[in-house]
Design goal:
It is a single chain. 11% of the residues lie in helices and 29% in strands. With 82 residues, the chain is mostly beta strands. A 5-stranded antiparallel β-sheet has the order 4-3-2-1-5. It is globular and about 30 Å long. Residues 77-82 have low confidence and may be disordered.
Amino acid sequence: MLGTKISRVRVKAAPETEAAGVAGLTGRVVARISPSSTGVPVVGATPHDVALAVKFDEPRDSLWFPPELLESLGGRAGFSRV
């Protein structure tokens, strides 16, 4: 699972991300939430009740994803996997 210190990510190809038209897009993580507490829509299932907001490089809205659907591209010092 991706930690919260990730800054650059790519959305993995999966049925949910392909249906949303975001598979393969890159961006940066800007927030982390518990979907069960906030009710925000998330692309994909959240078995660990964690979602990360990704602000995409190309102009479009940010979307929320479970960490399992994101691939780290590195970024901030202190990268961690939890």
